[in-house]
Amino acid sequence: MLAMCVAYExxxxxxxxxxxxxxxxxAIPVARTDAVSRALESAQTAKSHGADLxxxxxxxxxxxxxxxxxxxxxxxxxxxPCIVTVRDQSEGGAFSGSDDERIAAWRAASSAVPPPAYIxxxxxxYHARAPMGDSAREIARISSIGKLDATRxxxxxxxxxxxxxxxxxxxAEMWSDPGSAIAKVVWTARTVRDxxxxxxxxxxxxxxxxxxxxxxxxxxxxxLAPKFGGFLTYARADAHGTAPxxxxxxxxxxxxxxxxxxxxxxxxxxxxYPVSHSRSPExxxxxxxxxxxxxxxxxxxxxxxxxxxKATLAxxxxxxxxxxxxxxxxxxHKENAIRFVKESGGVIEESAQRIGAANTIGKxxxxxxxxxxxxxxxVVEALANAMRRAGGDGNxxxxxxxxxxxxxxxxxxxxxxxxxxxxxxxxxxxASKAKRIAEEFAVAxxxxxxxxxxxxxxxxxxxxxxxxxxxCTSVGMDGGPAADQNPLPAEVVFDERVVVMDAVYSPAKxxxxxxxxxxxxxxxxxxEMLVAQAAHQFEAWTGKRPPTDATPSR
Length: 554
Ligand code: NAP
Hints:
The protein has 19 helices and 22 strands. With 554 residues, it is an alpha/beta fold. The radius of gyration is 28 Å and the shape is elongated.
């Protein structure tokens, strides 16, 4: 349960922090004395991009006997209020020096005018070596004497391998320590579900807290920190961050709309495996922004089987404060999406029911989940647009359409065009799969009528004339089984009345499209289908058509 927002205030020289404002801290490693000017320039750039704080990571610099002047200069000339950190190797840093060297670095930092806003010390160092904790507190105390600006202590804990054992008790220990102002815990997320634990820690905080997850699964905790009142989130100034998974300051502010994230932000995800190639976050987040819709969509990688899919979605939809409102579901989970919604007592819409797969999960106003297949709409819309561009009216009724493939995309395409009155021939390398689809669709189901879908051999395409040919195999796809091949037999005859569509969207021009275009056919690539199906997802979640002028280019 979300705890009440803790009423506290903490101030920085140039910014006042109150509950609900989350700072962006840019972490800049400074390895040597001659790197100070460059580091100050990076901080200046980060400031111009929207950073509020800079963390000077002086891990190796602190081991240099001549480090003091460089550290003083870093703090004194820092364009932003700063944190000074000498991170030990045991917690992912580069410092392997002595306690005395670390204390000397802190002392140098605190002698600057103004002194650093914060110094960071690991919980393990703070406790295990008593003089270190004493020194950190003492430096914070001395730095405050006779000065307007006080240095505060951030007590931190990092685990680069995974979720640390005893996480809550460590955090409770940091919260109860009177000598520190901020508690910080950072660990490597094993799955997206770790983010929820970070959010729960933030929601129940007893003092300003930083709770972040590292790695490919941890982005949600970094971006959504303001939703849960995190004290700060870390960002990269440039290509080199200090922890895996940090976005750049620009990405955070411009692409993620970090400043506009608040308690009411709705959360969505694209769930797939692998997911890193997905363009859905870029497309939907741009549309959300352009439509002034307070939503953010994240890439969520879920291992390819039912159990992890079920566990992940149950946790995301089940955590009320997260306000997880919908998922775009891609390979290999489209069938799992139907099963999940069915088991949760939700509604399987007709398209998803007949196709046997859903690419969209949403929440109705009564809180029930629904499963929809917008791939079928995507095919129909992209095709109809291409037919209009070719001088037709975009009507599919009575059109003869050949579909190559019998996987998920082919099922969606066959259902989409046949339910608009087209006559479909489906052909596939594994003929039995095409036959099964034809047999399924040829039978009326409930109120849905029988569809005109027939399975034939690939050679049939050379003997008959089709108005439209749609490739729904993975042939031609970058990184796929036959990346530079054309799935059509060479004997297939085209003319300018034929429309050829390829569901493959990477590359933009597949071997099939190049071949068909050279023979006069009108062509449409998979990107148009991808955007069209995403537009239907957007509508399913927000009730509105997306502002398509904000669509990213392919
Ligand atoms: P799928 O379920 O895995 O089906 C793959 C299909 O390709 C099967 O019919 C398979 O035949 C066939 N195939 C694979 N390798 C082949 C080869 N070497 N020769 C002939 N046929 C081959 O995949 P899917 O989800 O349907 O996706 C298919 C393609 O559509 C992918 O490139 C995907 O990226 C694209 N897609 C695009 C969109 C979009 O919005 N643009 C949406 C969904 C999918 P067998 O049955 O014989 O194995």
